[in-house]
Amino acid sequence: MVKASLAAGLAGLALFALRFSGVPLSLLVPASVLGLGAALYLSASMPKFLKVFNGVLAGVEVILVLMILFDAFGWISEDLAAYVPPASMLAGGTIFAFLIYGVSRIPVIRTIMTLADRYFDSQAMSEINVPLIGTVRASEGRIGTALLAALVALNLFQVALSVRLNFFGRDMFNALQVKDGPAFWYQLFWIFVPLATVFVSVALVEIVSQYVLRIRWRSFLNGLYVSEWLDDGTHYRMQLVGREADNPDQRIADDLRNYVDQTYTLSIGLLNQSATLVSFVAILWTLSRDFTLPGTDIPVPGLLVWVAILYALFGTWLTHVIGRPLIGLYFRQEKVEADYRFSLARLREYTEQIALLDGEEAEKQALGRRFGMIVENFMQIVRRVMHLTIFQSAYFQANVVVPYILTAPYYFIDKITLGQMQQTVGAFSSVQGALTFFITSYSTIASYKAVIDRLTTFEAAISGVRRESGKGVQVTESASTGPDLLVSDLEVALPDGRALMRADDVSFKHGEATLLTGPSGSGKSTLFRAISGIWPFGKGVVDVPAGQSMMLLPQRPYIPIGTLRAAITYPGMHGDYDDAAIKAALTAAKLPALVDKLDEERAWAQTLSLGEQQRLAIARALLAKPDWLLLDEATAALDEPTEAEIYLVLKKTLPGTTIVSIGHRSTLAAFHDRSIGMQKGADGLFSPVEKRETAAAK
């Protein structure tokens, strides 16, 4: 941008020199180019998304300056002179460049652009297939920037076509007024048809290009947000901490899609309307430069421009007053809709338990209550939108007749022709459409603001959890402790900060199966989670032998949606294990009936009983062969004989794995070499104590 600003500054000085040397140039031309140079210099600090807009705008101004120069030197024929833009159009473009810079300094816009630039600044390599060129390999950020620049240019070209169609309307109605048949048919077939063909072709390219940009942009942000949410157990810690980020699934699936779509729609729409405003204000000013104040002889240069501006300002202010509550209502609607979807999904997950408890009526009542919240908030939106629509409808109906009311007196006294009247009405409508962009888009803007708020609070929640991730229990890999797992100065707390249990100088010896017992709520499962590194509350150190793997099987396993093969090999990737190994693991885990169903897709979490799910989790461990296997009541749903068989299978199949179990059954002691119990101390906190030490004390 700095080099471009320097080039624009030098070009502006050169144009000043040409003007003072006698070339018929308006003073606005060199002044506008110099101003553009200043705007480009300021743009160096702008977000990349907005830099693209100013960059394309600079390219357009270069073309306009060349057209003006060619006309000044007499290199453009009279037939094409009407296509030469007025100098005021250059000034409008420069003013718009400064406006873009000014908008970029608004805090909420910087927040929006920060989200956008995560894509446009991406250095990840990617490919795109370009018609007539072939496959192009570049960074995803460069590809997105190129697509955005092309779309901005296409939209500006569409505005130029609209300007030319405005002149076509003037010439056609003039031909009708004087009943000039040949001129009418010439305008229709040789002017309108080619322009319409080009317009449709450009619109088609624009639609395809924008959808390509949207899906690439969304795909990148989706991958980024999913990674940030899942990496380092952030999703689990966010749930525990209770950060202000409800329904993260909805924020990733819906809010990201809405953000991409609405950012593109609103920014390109604003650009399009601004370019329309710049183009048609010049036309409208020229057409109404000799108009007088209605009912008087007082001349008001550019009367219709001032009327359009005042009319639009009044409408914009009133729209904001009426529609402002929509922002909060749309935010709440997203939340209650997501809560309702989550309730339905949870009901589907626990259908058996609900059926066994005859809980259908309770579920109906709960779902009805949640849906009632949707209806209540929706009706508030309806009432507010109704008020907004009433005003907008009246406003835009008045738009139809206002330009005719203002121009008809001049037509009746033969001051303007029918063609000029139609051109003036068209220009007035275009200027009004550009100025009332805020009015027509208010509901979209309100919804968009809610989406931005949800994404920024989601990012803030992720950042907050990550900042605090290093403040709790420290799980480190160390060779100094030998092959054993050592817990030192550990104090595990609950999410509200209350201490739950403590453990100091507790070691789990490699190769020695250990059983951890104790009353419910004494912190056994929480200790396992602290050892695994996912529990964020507390302090202390867990030394894990360097280079050794660990696997924790909870009482209720996670069964992902998909094939049985994917469920068994989870969290392994596709192809990590061959069929023979998977079938052997299923057979060893006492699930021989499933060996021929590896590629069946079902809701396995609902199809399998809890006991079958626990055995499937055992099969995962048999495949993964971890160095440390933590069983958190992972066989509690099995009958005692089957549980005994499972432990014998683990001991035989995984001789190099150290098993640490949590359980309440006395029969488990036979499968472990050592027993540790959670004992309550004088301070009310539980601590792991060797069972032999407890017995000796008695």
TrEMBL record:
Residues 485-698 form the ABC transporter domain. One of its GO terms (cellular component) is plasma membrane. The chain crosses the membrane at residues 27-44, 56-76, 82-103, 143-163, 183-208, 266-288, 303-323, 394-413. It is found in: Cell membrane. Its main location: membrane. It comes from the Bacteria. It is a multi-pass membrane protein. PROSITE patterns: ABC_TM1F (PS50929), ABC_TRANSPORTER_1 (PS00211), ABC_TRANSPORTER_2 (PS50893). GO terms for molecular function: ABC-type transporter activity; ATP binding; ATP hydrolysis activity. Pfam families: ABC_membrane_2, ABC_tran. Residues 149-447 form the ABC transmembrane type-1 domain. Keywords: ATP-binding, Membrane, Nucleotide-binding, Transmembrane, Transmembrane helix, Transport. Belongs to the ABC transporter superfamily. This is ABC transporter ATP-binding protein/permease. It comes from Microvirga brassicacearum.
